Amino acid sequence: MKYMFVQYTLIGIFLFGCSTKEEQESKMQTVNNSPVATTEIIEITHPHEIDIFRTAIKDSTQVPGIVNMTKPHYNFRLGEESYSLWLTEDNGTILNQKDRNKIYTLSSVYLEKLYDFIHEN
CB–CB of 82/75 below 8 Å? Predict the structure, then answer.
């Protein structure tokens, strides 16, 4: 009698474990099938362009709080530093790749300049 009880218990645990694994796999497939936006790389080569981007970074304001950002619209490099940029006509946010815990909001002046620069090229 004990043997049958142990046997049925083990079969039940095995079946329960298999059903849990299938549920996890189906959830993972749903997440992995979502479309991913691509990030465009901005090439900054001319001294005037470099000045605009450097000043935009210096003039930006740190946003307080915990950072939880989506995939950036653009990536660019200035010297040894790499940055991510989220840019729309109304908002601009910059993140230095070395410090992923801080984001910065672009000033309205440089938001317009960067937006114009990117959409001209």
Answer: yes
The one-character DSSP state at 36 is -
What gap in Å lies between CA 97 and CA 85, rounded to an integer?
10
SS3 19: helix
d(CA 88, CA 98): 23
pTM over 0.90: no
**What stretches of the chain adopt beta strand conformation (E)?**
40-41, 61-63, 74-78, 81-87, 92-96, 103-105
Nearest alpha-carbon partner for 54 in 75, 77, 74: 77
Is 24 exposed, middle or buried, given 0-12, 13-18 or 19+ CB atoms closer than 10 A? exposed
For strand 61-63 and strand 103-105, is the pairing parallel, antiparallel, or unpaired?
Answer: antiparallel
The pLDDT tens digits of the residues spanning 41-78 come to 998 989 999 999 999 999 999 999 888 889 999 999 99
